[in-house]
Design a protein that fits this description.
The protein is an alpha/beta fold and 226 residues long. It has helices at residues 15-22, 78-90, 96-109, 115-130, 148-158, 176-181, 210-217, and strands at 3-7, 26-29, 43-46, 53-56, 59-60, 72-73, 135-138, 163-166, 185-188. Helix 1 links the parallel strand 1 (3-7) and strand 2. It starts with a strand and ends in a 9-residue tail after the last helix.
């Protein structure tokens, strides 16, 4: 059995995103699809003493049909600003010093103008912190056909997959009958039941970047994941 997940890239995602990556054999970045504004593609939240703070990569949207992997950054100094915000708000986190050097290097040396490349690089780094060794590929590595369900099914089959792990929101558009006909079993990740971890700046918030979990709990991060 080979388990596959297919998701759009997100910027420094929350822990649930990494739980999907961790539970599959191959994770396919699905960035050959339309870029959506005010979504998780180019932004996420961190905790601060004043409440959650959005970190947003400024991007250029030329037209509504623009794909995620065609989307470019519109300001050069975003990474420096984001690192200053992270450093300011997490300098007193228990494991900040353990990860500081690699995080600072990531932000200070990030020169790619493409959102997809930035997201993937960040996810690769965060995977290394979490000990996740899942193979990461891109939909651009495969031949793509038309049809929302048909394309996903064909991607899974091209990758040699027999099992598809999806987020719960996809139940609204996935045709389980088509997947069954193709011999692909579907399962849905459950985001409920996460336990709280030691977190700066109460009250506790689950829906923030996984950086919050990593900097507060370090090597114990996986204890607070699925």
């Amino acid at each position: 059995m080979k388990k596959i997940a297919i998701l759009q890239s997100n910027y420094i995602p929350w822990k649930g995103y990494f739980d999907i990556i961790k539970q599959v054999d191959e994770f396919i970045f699905y960035d050959d699809v339309q870029y959506t504004k005010n979504d998780w593609r180019n932004r996420n939240k961190i905790k601060t003493s004043s409440g959650p703070l959005w970190l947003t990569i400024p991007v250029r949207q030329e037209n509504l049909a623009q794909k995620i992997n065609e989307t470019k950054v519109s300001q050069d100094n975003w990474a420096e600003k984001h690192w200053k915000s992270i450093s300011l708000n997490y300098s007193k986190a228990p494991f900040y010093n353990l990860y500081k050097e690699r995080l600072e290097l990531f932000f200070m040396e990030m020169k790619s103008p493409y959102l997809s490349e930035i997201n993937r690089s960040a996810i690769e780094l965060l995977n290394s912190f979490l000990g996740i060794k899942t193979a990461l590929t891109s939909s651009a590595d495969y031949k793509l056909i038309e049809g929302k369900n048909e394309r996903l099914i064909d991607l899974i089959l091209q990758a040699g997959g027999t099992h598809y792990l999806s987020g719960p929101s996809a139940k609204d558009y996935i045709s389980q009958d088509l997947f069954k006909e193709a011999g692909i079993e579907i399962s849905w990740i459950d985001y409920s039941g996460y336990i709280e971890y030691p977190q700066l700046f109460p009250p506790f918030v689950h829906a923030v970047s996984v950086l919050d979990l990593i900097l507060n709990t370090g090597p114990d991060s996986k204890k607070y994941m699925k």
